[in-house]
Amino acid sequence: xxxxxxxxxxxxxLAAVGRPAYITEGRDAALGGDRSVEAMRERAHLMLDxxxxxxIRFVDAARSYGxxxxxxxxxxxxxxxxxxDLTIESKWGYAYVGGWRMDADVHEHKEHTLAMxxxxxxxxxxxxxxxxxxxxxHSLTPDSPALADGALLEVLRGLVASGVxxxxxxxxxxxxxxxxxxxxxxxxxxxxxxxxxxxxxxSAGPALGRAHDAGWLVVVKEAVANxxxxxxxxxxxxxxxxxxxxxxGRPLDALAIGAARxxxxxxxxxxxxxxxxxxxxxxxxxxPSEADRAAFARLAEDPADYWSARSERPxx
Length: 316
What we know:
This protein is α/β, with parallel strands linked by helices. It has helices at about 25-30, 35-55, 70-80, 115-130, 150-160, 175-185, 205-215, 240-250, 250-260, 275-285, 290-295, 305-310; strands spanning about 10-15, 60, 85-90, 95, 110, 135-140, 165-170, 190-195, 215-220, 270. The radius of gyration is 18 Å and the shape is globular. It starts with 9 loop residues before the first strand and ends in a 5-residue tail after the last helix.
């Protein structure tokens, strides 16, 4: 865990390089037209190499990220000396159902049941070549059956006993409620969270602080809001943010990621970069000044509006 006085380290998230289509703005220009399995595997390995070379030691995947676990597993197998220095996080509870098509009607299927866990855990082990360090329930919401399924919770406690840290990722306007519910469960198996926090959607911050204070590992995802806070992004206020970034001699995404890394409860902030240049830009992040913080406070959107707009983003 960080001590709250130094920036949280970056991790690499594989959501955007594990499948042909995703909702990140500007992805077409970055990836080009070849979205074959071979091309995406090569891209994933390129990004993993770039992250390793820059000292990144936290990698995030999920069963629903297409072949992200398989791509990561083949990279780990090619570098057997590296896993000991890495923290590998993956997630279950969503299945990828897009059939490797850009135009699929449905890309993911969500199911937080014991049957889904019992299917996906062996798939994760096979894909990665071993157990991840962290295994999260993917996109927990307050109404998730995972919070009340006694048999599932007992199995998750067994996973904890085996040495795997169990946690949740959160999504939607009620992230804080879902996180608090998972944290306060009697004999909760959960001790890690991956949550969306960015300058447009900071509402989970207080709940993340409570989790951090309780000893949870806190991982931030979507710090650039699926590209809305990257150069060329469509966020309201992006122009004023870009001016702040220019004054600091940094790209816009570096400003957004720097704000996330400066949060006292953040232990890891994920980069969703799909090119080495994007990763370099993310790594250029800087802590915000007091003037920056005042400007940031005016950017927050209503959480319901933010998540509604996110749900309508095209898969490209």
